[in-house]
Fold this sequence. Notes:
The protein is of the alpha/beta class. The protein has helices spanning 6-10, 15-27, 77-88, 99-103, 108-121, 124-131, 135-139, 154-162, 172-183, 196-215, 219-236, 246-264, 269-287, 293-304, 316-330, 334-343, 347-356, 360-367, 373-385, 389-399, 407-419, 423-436, 440-450, 454-468, 471-480, 484-492, 498-508, 513-528, 536-552, 556-569, 574-581, and strands at residues 30-36, 39-45, 49-57, 60-66, 94-95, 194-195, 240-241.
Amino acid sequence: MTTLTEDTLRxxxxxxxxxxxxxxxxxxxxYNTIRQGDTLLAECVGTExxxxxxxxxxxxxxxxxxxxxxxYGGYCKHLVALLLxxxxxxxxxxKRKSLPVLLENVDKTALVAMLAKLADRHPxxxxxxxxxxxxxxxxxxxxxxxxxGTGVVDGARESIESQSKPVSQVSEHAWRKRxxxxxxxxxxxxxxxxxxxxxxxxxxxxxxxxxxVLAAGDAQGAITILLALLDELGDAYEMFDDSDxxxxxxxDFAGEILAEAILSADLNEKERKTLERKLAEIAxxxxxxxxxxxxxIAQLALEHGWETHPExxxxxxxxxxxxxxxxxxxxxxxxxxxxxxxxxxQHLRFTQKLLQLGRTDEGIRAAYQIAxxxxxxxxxxxxxxxxxxxxxxxxxxxxxxxxxxxxxxAVWLAPLEESxxxxxxxxxxxxxxxxxxxxLETYKSLQRLSGExxxxxxxxxxxxxxxxxxxxAIAAVYLYEQEWDAAIAVAENSAYDYSLREKVADAxxxxxxxxxxxISIQEAEKLIEPTQSKYYPHxxxxxxxxxxxxxxxxxxxxxxxxxxxxxxxxxxxxSLQKELAKL
Length: 583
């Protein structure tokens, strides 16, 4: 993996994440480093222990994930620390077999005993195991038939009525019990409402189980599970705080899979009418909470079925077409799937299917019909995963010529081009990414790759940067170029961006101490004035900057005079005095 370098690593993250990652690397925060083929695994000590996974290939870094909540663009500091460790200390990585290889000769009894022991130590694992059991195990417990007193039980009557129609083994009673358990009170994190986050994840697991039932050929069973889920959710929804919309998204997801099940089911007229009535009642209930999209698609599937062009469905036509494609793909009706893709201009799925079928040349040609850069990126990633770099790179370059948001495509392509020695192409990709979302790291990459052209290129890129009005990026570039006064002007114009003002103050202490003294005292006194102790640590942090600037400029006596006056003025504020004593 010699194509992975610190320069390419810097280009995949923010300056702050790289610097913090460098600190983590030097402090030895990364441990349990393992290399499993081209996969790196490790743990990193941060606010808590985070688990890291990185996949490498001939072009460098293919993918990476961390369990930390970082979501501000680029790779997090923990991943940076791991990759720096790999770059500089590769021999510290323990090589090990994959889990399937490790366990291939262990018999079932021993594996069950290991799982049971693990579940005893971690009780929450039991729920995970139960939720991930094969659907055949969960769903194949039929409900006990009810004796109606006529000598014919309900289950037998249904079997007689259905005649040759296969009978679903899904127990509605069992699934309702499981769904009620997910939605029961007592799992919330607030006094007034239940948290929707955990419940939505569990409901999505149930929807995935219904999808597996459907994949096994039991469309009616999937319908039973999903109707129960949506019905119970409608009854329990008001108990939850769904301000972030997680439960609404879970309902839409269930509605989409329900639409697939409806299109897959062989419903007679009576069953269709019954389902239509039930679905209308559930949809009406959930619509009161603004949950409609998924149910609308399911109702359209029930009303129109496989009609080529349902009338008066507006924006849901595309979604219904996607549902149909899912059904065709699940049922292995490849020719019909490909034909519908072409008919509905689903170029991405058409391309993906051809690649999946091994019709690589056709798939690559079809990929050039994709009109959205984000979908081009998705396809290029697939080609890279298939070790088709020579095809992935030209396709991604083509994607940069399309209309639309190209930032993520450019960010993915630029270090890849650089790793292959295609420096001019890498420069062009960096230019695209900088134009859409400028950052100091991309600015540095442009400077590194442009060589003698930098003086001229710099002018145009600064114009782009200033037009974005992104204060943090503008200030970072000015500081990098040591244009202290320009950076100060940006900070002055960002009166409410305290983080930016602090960064600029820290950077210019040695160069513009007078400004740092003025701004630091101004910010500190604003925080002291409200007489709220929670602000005092922040005030002290600003005063520490003022002190450093005074000392940097050889004005220790002035600092001592100001500091003594400050302590006298606020002598009756013990919480403040405690913070001041630390200075």
